[in-house]
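Bench notes, afternoon.
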Amino acid sequence: QVQLLESGGGLVQPGGSLRLSCAASGFTFSRYTMSWVRQAPGKGPEWVSSINNYGDSTHYADSVKGRFTVSRDNAKNTVYLQMNSLKPEDTGVYYCRQGGYWGRGTQVTVSS
């Protein structure tokens, strides 16, 4: 069965950085586009970024463009989200997604 396990969240000050990881299993990872989605407290899910199966095409929400970088390692079945220049409005639970499958998420809190 498809499993997605996020890690790397935590508490960081504004302007800081975090690197999220999502370890995937149960499907042929190298064949699928992977996405990151976040949900802020009291709000609906917001798509953040996607990367195609080869890793040579990436897309970002305007809110994170220039600050976040998505990447993947198909040999490790892992997708990453490097988050720099974090802002309080980046606070939320970050989920890894493959099609209709979601991980359990990892909490990111940006606060001084």
